[in-house]
Amino acid sequence: MALAKAINESLRRALESDPKVLIMGEDVGKLGGVFRVTDGLQKDFGESRVIDTPLAESGIVGTAIGLALRGYRPVVEIQFDGFVFPAYDQIVTQLAKMHARSLGKVKLPVVVRIPYGGGIGAVEHHSESPEALFAHVSGLKVVSPSNASDAYWMMQQAIQSDDPVIFFEPKRRYWDKAEVNTEAIPGPLHKAQVVREGTDLTLVAYGPMVKLCQEVAAAAAEEGKSLEVLDLRSISPLDFDSVQASVEKTRRLVVVHEAPVFLGSGAEIAARITERCFYHLEAPVLRVGGYHAPYPPARLEEEYLPGLDRVLDAVDRALAY
């Protein structure tokens, strides 16, 4: 099934299995969401379980916090990545802090769904990648699936978590299809996965860039280069052990994400792996990502976003050492 459909089916399963699960957001009900991710859920579960809210992100998250305090498990949708900032205060000063502030007595099982990233030709504030801002905040879990199977199971695990989870959905991958086994036993939510084995260099990515890195590895293979592709899946906490294990094997690392390279998630990965793998590395850890500039108009976004050639150039530079 498509990634968007997998999330829909996962939300449906959660609504069926737990009457305390609620879905809230702008146009999530009658319209089924801008990307139709919640299509049909209000029809089947009613307006008291799948709630169309006012256009007020701070109010949406604030209401979800109150509901969570009363025992509910709200799943809120922020319609687009750039719309999350009116709710940023509620997320980082209330949602993320309540567990610590109450000395562990209060839990806030809230999932904040955020379609993110570019590649769909959208207008301003519709193509941003703010994941590093949330990963920096202790008390939040930050995850991003790259395929339909992970989207289905990671959403289940996020809803079942007693801690708040920021769930970044790669909107340009909504229509990518993959096999989904809804009866499988999923692995840990915050465990990275090797999606392609290799020996010469490790490519680390998450969300929308995993597919690109697989394409890069396939192109490099035609030139006799063996690249390993690691899907992080979780940005906070981050599975450094899996990254380290891969780098100790390949001895080179390139980190790829859509977000700006400057102070992005790749910076933390590069620093940690340099510390952990200093005597294994045969080249500096390189990063490929967006530029430190506002996201451009749609006609220029292909110049802004990392593409095959930009990642292959980083691979060549790392292999040249």
Automatic annotation (TrEMBL):
Keywords: Oxidoreductase, Thiamine pyrophosphate. Residues 1-176 form the Transketolase-like pyrimidine-binding domain. InterPro entries: THDP-binding (IPR029061), Transketo_C/PFOR_II (IPR009014), Transketolase-like_Pyr-bd (IPR005475), Transketolase_C (IPR033248). Pfam families: Transket_pyr, Transketolase_C. Its cofactor is thiamine diphosphate. GO terms for molecular function: magnesium ion binding; oxidoreductase activity. This is Alpha-ketoacid dehydrogenase subunit beta. It comes from Streptomyces guryensis. The lineage of its organism: Bacteria, Bacillati, Actinomycetota, Actinomycetes, Kitasatosporales.
